[in-house]
Structure formats: structure tokens, C-alpha cells
Amino acid sequence: MARDIGIDLGTANVLINMAGKGIVLNEPSVVAIDTNNGSVVAVGTEAYKMVGRTPGNIKAIRPLKDGVIADFDVTEAMLSYFIEKLNVKGFMAKPSILICAPTNVTSVEQKAIIQAAEKSGGGKVYLEFEPKVAAIGAGLDIFKPQGNMVIDIGGGTTDIAVLSMGEIVTSRSLTFAGNKMDQSIVAYIKKNHNLLIGERTAEAIKKAIGSAFEADPDANIQVRGRDIRDGLPKEVTVTATEVQESLTDGLMTVVAGAKEVLEKTPPELSADIIDRGIMLTGGGALLKHLDQLIAHHLQVPVLTADNPLDAVALGTGVLLENIASHRKRRG
Fold it and tell me: Do 277 and 215 share a structural domain?
């Protein structure tokens, strides 16, 4: 018998939740391709190790951009690899797949996501919106007639939504998320230190000393890269205050997006959000003091999910159980 799976198809990582087993896969959304013959050299963790370090004929590709499929064939190859690796297909049956998408996804993009899941070995494919699934994975009861607000900051998109009775009431999707944070750090260090670094280095800086609010003035990190003036390797000291400065403009677009969603929210639901607070999910929620920054500007309590990185994948597990029990009742 095939095992149903939930897929958090992220710009940065793919997480897969298998019915009855929980999260069984968490790997980077990267595929290494040999440009000479188009063959897949590596997928996931192995391909991520190659980012920025490949020879001319090998290209490490991120097939998703801003939460949607940018390269259909590579996405299909990546999903097929992961599904084969998990061995979830039955002798005669294909697994049902629940897959997630940002709230601003177009009908064409929705079809592409469903088609990629079907071609990679899925049977019945269900599509759900990321903030709804993230809210469920964070433990919010979104099926009651009360307002819940979630800000899901992934690799490619930040999805902001107010939910009630199992549906999205108001939402906004932004392209400033984890990857853009890394790019902001790269640009800042290039401009202020004349040093060229890669996005993997920027991500390491963000994780080590990154802060959204009230950065530690004494925290710093040694950063190696290429001097843009003479092309030679160079090491500089970057402070936590500088990293915060590099992220400020982008993070304020998240605050502005959250304000916009709140302004469109019916007053009864707004009152619930004041009581219950805003839930932060996604890898971006791990940025130090992000909850304080949002709470400071919106004057609403902000909480971070217990497992922000896994929230969407955990939510797919709950929804898969609901689908299975609904099937049993009908059967």
C-alpha cells in the first residue's frame, strides 16, 4: 500500500512528512546538472555542497524561485528523486500528495506544482496555502470562528495571513524572505567592506550574529571573501550592528505587509489577534529578536512557533490525517 505524503516545497528546502511516520526528509532545494548532457549529478544536500564550488560544466540550480516553480523539469527530477528515496509507492498504488504553495500563486503556477507532483509519482494531489498549513503545524486551531494571524517567513516568500474557520480571511505574500536577507548581507558587505562573499557565507553570518532588533554591540564575526579592488582573498570583521543595518529595510517591508493585512481584517477578528498574538513560522522566524521588532511596530504580542522550520511540514501531517479519516467515513 502506498503511504500518503505531505510536501513543503520550499525555495530553500524540501521537507516531506509521511503519514504515520512524521517528517522523514529535509534537504536543500538544489539540483546539480551536467550542462554537457543535461543529466542530474546530485540532488538535495549533495548538490547544496556544490553551490559556488562547481566547475564550468556542472551547474547547481535552485528550481524554485519566490516559492514557485522556475524550472519545471528540474523540479520534477528533484521531487522524483526524493519520492524514490523514501520508497512510498505501493506495488500497484501511488501515494496521495498534499503540497503547499504561497498565497499569491497564480492558477497557472498552481497547475505546474500539481503537475510536477503527479509526474514525480503522485496519485491524487492536493494543494494548500502555506500560511494555513504553517498555522496548523504551529498548533493553532484555525477551524474555530476566531482570528489567528501567522507570518510564515520561508526562503523565497513571506506569507502573512489572518485565518478563521479553516480559511484565509486576508493575506499578503512578499518576496522578501530568507534568501533576500542573505542577498542584503552580501550587498552590504560589498558596499561597506569592498569584500565579495557568496550567499552561503551570508547565511552563516545571519545565523551566527544576525538580529532584527537591538543587536548585541559587542558581537562580531570574521568573514573571508575576495577583495573587489585587487581580487585577492581577504578577511574582515563584521559586527552584529552592521548585519542588523543590512536587514532593516527588508524587514520593514514585512512589518508594512503585516500592517496592511491587519488593516483589511474585520474588527472582531482583529480583537482576537490582540488577545492571541501573531505566530511566526518558517526558517526566517529564527532570526534573533524578530518577534520583538514586529511586536514593537504593531503593538500586538508576537510568538515564535516551537519548530518554525518544520511548521508547514507538520501541518501537512495533520491535514493528511483529516483527508484519510474523511476517506474512511465516505468508504
Answer: yes
Structural domain containing residue 17: 5-132+311-330
Which of left, alpha, beta for 139 (phi over 0: left; psi -120 to 50: alpha)?
left
Judgement on whether residues 215 and 245 belong to the same structural domain of the protein? yes
> Cα–Cα distance between 254 and 296 in angstroms, integer?
13
Same domain, yes or no, for 322 and 267?
no
pLDDT in tens, 66-120: 888 999 999 999 999 998 888 776 656 788 899 999 998 899 999 999 999 999 8
Instruction: Match 505546474 to its residue by C-alpha cell.
Output: 112
Q: What is the pLDDT of residues 153-169, one digit of tens each?
A: 999 999 999 999 999 99
**CATH number for 287:** 3.30.420.40
Residues 46 and 192 in one domain: no
Q: Are residues 203 and 158 in the same domain?
A: yes
Residue 302 and residue 310 in contact, taking contact as beta carbons nearer than 8 Å: no
pTM given for the model: 0.92
State residue 293 phi and psi, 5-degree precision. Answer: -60, -50
